Amino acid sequence: MILYEYPFNERLRTYLRLEQLFRRLGELIPRTHALDHHFALVTIFEIMDVAARADLKADVLKDIEKHKHQLDAYRGNPSISEAALDAVIAQLDRCFAALNTQAGKSGHSLTENDWLMSIRSRVGIPGGTCGFDLPAYYDWQHRDAAMRQRALQEWASTLAPLAESIYLLLKLLRDSGVAQKVAAERGQFQQNLPQGRTFQLLRMRVDPALGVIPEISGNRLIVSVRLMRMGEDARLHPCTEDAAFELTLCA
Description:
The protein has 251 residues and is an alpha+beta fold. 47% of the residues lie in helices and 20% in strands.
């Protein structure tokens, strides 16, 4: 099954973008090729760009506090495991403390590294990190892979509190949804959203054998899915057949 996710607000869009970047970074650092480490460094710079948003850290801390208050309300409920509840709240506390005690924005300390910033200033230029542009960086790429990995891990560690917080918040959000089987008649699906609940994320699982690509739109009142197919002309065309998929709304 192919999983598609659609965020209903800008804050969650930022969280999902960061999650994608952190997962990419986690894939690239353990590799040994210099090209992989170049793109690991590019990913660190991308994370820094996203994390530079003024209110991001405050939003994450606020969301952690919100989840903690919601979970605290479950104490004393006989159908809830106190041990499991304590474990999740402890995770939230750790993430909050680690992020809150970090000075400035995530990755801010890296901006004091002139060598890294010289690379960052050239990365956006097509071919801007050639050996004749940045000989010191070219030399670094030819050094021992283990040394490069240690350096990347050290730089990435400044982003770890933000990464752990994002991972935990998205896991809690995804776990809040209940999957349901739905059908798109002639490739079209619409569902009114219940009033009184603010959904933040739509998750959609599609069987790849159907050969369809969803175009998702939505707001606090309604969600709409239009199924498309890639044609021989390399363009998307509306699907006119009935198709079933799995839909999850997460609040």
